[in-house]
Amino acid sequence: MNQRIHVTRQKFIILVKIMQDNLQSYPLIGEKNNGFDVLYHNMKHGQISSKELSDFIRERATIEETYSRSMTKLAKSASNFSQLGTFAPVWDVFKVSTEKLAACHMELVRKLQELIKEVQKYVDEQAKAHKKTKEEVASTLEAVQNIQSVSQALQKSKENYNSKTLELERMRKEGATQRDLDKAGVKVKKATEVYKSYVEKYASTKTEFEQKMAETAQKFQDIEESHIQHMKEIIQSYSCSVEDTHKQIIEVHKEFVNNMENTSAAGLIQKLAESKGTGKERPGKTKHKHTAVSYNTDLCLYFSGRYPPYFSRDLLNFEIMAKLWTSRGPSPVTLASQDPLPIAVAFTESVNAYFKGADPSKCIVKITGDMTLSFPSGIIKIFTSSPSPAVLSFKLRNTSKLEQILPNQHLLHSDSSQSDTNTKDFWLNMPALTAYLRKCSEQNPVSSYYNVDVLKYQVCSNGIQSTPLNLAVYWKCGSSTTDLRIDYRYNPEAMQPPGPLTSVQVLVPVNGGVTNMQSLPNAIWNTEQSKSLWKLNDISEKSENEGSGSLRAKFELSDGPSIPATLAVQFFNEGSTLSGVDMELVGSGYRLSLNKKRFTSGKTSII
Hints:
It contains 10 helices and 17 strands. The protein has helices spanning 2-24, 35-79, 88-136, 138-173, 178-261, 265-276, 291-303, 313-328, 379-385, 430-443, and strands spanning 341-356, 359-376, 393-397, 402-407, 412-414, 423-428, 449-459, 469-477, 481-490, 502-509, 514-520, 524-526, 531-536, 548-557, 567-574, 582-586, 590-606. Strand 5 and strand 6 form a beta hairpin. Helix 2 (35-79) runs parallel beside helix 5. The longest helix is centred in the middle third of the chain and has 84 residues, at 178-261. The protein is flat. Residues 105-174 form a coiled coil. This is F-BAR domain only protein 2.
C-alpha cells in the first residue's frame, strides 16, 4: 500500500510542476490574481484626469479673464489722462491698442469656456461608459473571485498533503507499528485526493479566468486608447486657441508699432495748432486807452453770435461751460467721472403655501424669486459713448439652496461648467444691455433710473419649515353655529436674516347665512361677500408669545351648517429673503449702491 502511495505522489508532483509552468507564462494573473483590480482602477483614474484637465482649463480661463479686465481698465484710464499738450493724441493710440489686446484675451476666454463645456460633456459620457463597462465585466470579476478562492483552498490542501506525507515518512524512519503506518497511509491518501481535486478544479477555473481576463484586458485597453486619443484632441483644441490668440496679439502689437512710427513730432504739433489755434490773423494796433472798450466789445459780439477772428469760440465755450459745471456741482454719473459706476440690485421672492387643516406634513410650498438690476439714466451716455464699456460681472452666492436658475437669455451669460454648487458666475452682454437701456430711455426719457430683470429662480423648499408663518385651521360646523380657530406661529428660521412680517391679513369665507359674528381679536365681517377679515400687527420674535397666537370666531347661522372653505393669508417683509441668495460684484468699473431684499406671500391658503 505504501508503495502505491509513493507512486501516486510522484505522478502528482509532475502534474503540479506542469501547472506551475503554465502559471508563470501568463503575465496578467500575478501571485494574487490582482490584474483585474489594477486595470479597473486605471480606467477610473481616466475620469479623474478628465476632471482635472477641465479644472486646469477653467483656471486658465479665469486668469485670462482677469488679465482682460485689467487691460480694459488700463485702456479706460488712458482716456482719462490729460488731453492738453502735443502728446495728448498719443493716448488714443494707447487706448485703442490696449482695448484690442483686452478683446484678444476675452476671445480666448470665450473659446476656453466652450472647450470646458466639451470636456464636461466628455466627462459625463465617460461616466456612462464606465458604468456600462462595469456591468459588462461583472462576470470577469466573478471569475477573479473564484480563482482567488480556489487558490486559497488549493494552498491549504497542499499544506495538509505535505504535512501528512512528512508525518508518514517520519513514522517509517522511527519504526512505527504497521497499524499506525496504515492509519497514517489512509490520511495521506485522503489528503492526496483532496489536493488532486483542487488541482483539477484550479485548472478548470484558471481556464475560465484566463479567457475572461483576456477579453476584459482587451476591453480596458480599447477604453484607454480611446480616452488618450480624446484627451489629445482636447489638448489640441486648447493649443490652437492659445496659438490663435498669440497671433492676434502679435498683429495688434505690429499695428501699435506702425501707428507710433507714423506719429511724428511735426504731426502732433500740427494737430495741436488745428485743435487749439485761436486764429491766423494778427490783432490790429490800438491805443492803450481803448483797451477796456475793445475787450467789452469782444464779449458783446460773442454773446450776440458775432466775434472777431482772434477769439476762439471753442475756447470760450470751454471756459463758460467749466464755470457753469462748477456752479451746479457734479452729476451722479458723468463722462468725466473716474469713479466706479453705481448700480442697484433687488431680490424679490414670493412664497406660495398650501396648508391642509392642522397636518404639517401635508403642507405644500413653492418659493420663487426675481433678481433685478437698476441703472441710473446717466449711465446710458457712458455705455453708448464707449466702444467697449467695462463688462458687468457678478457672483450669485448661496445658490445651493436654489432648485432652478433661469437667466435672461438675451442679456446674461454664465459658466455652466462650474463645480462650486454654492456660487455661480454671471456676466452681462454689454451691447445687448446698452441697446435695452437705450430703448427704455426712448420710451420713458424723464426717468432717473431703469430696471432690468436679469434672472428668475426657484428655491428648494422643505415643507412647512420653509414658510415664515406656519398656520393651522380648525372648523366645528353645526346646524346653527360655526366655530373657527386659526393658529399661527412665526418661523424665523425660514428667513435670512429673520425680520418682521408686516401687513398681515387673514381672509375667511363663511357660508350658511351668517347673522352674527363674535371674534377675538376683532375681525371685520363683509356681509356682501360673506367673508371675515383679520388685520394683524407686525409679527416677529419680539411680538407677544414670540409671534405665536390664535384667531377665534363664532358665527351664528340662519341656513347652516357651514362648509369649511379655503382661507387666504397675506404678509410682506422688507430686508430679508427666504433663500438667503445674495449678489457680489466681480472686477472693477462698478459699485453696488443699494442691495434691496424683500419677500411677499403669493398664493397662501388653508383648507
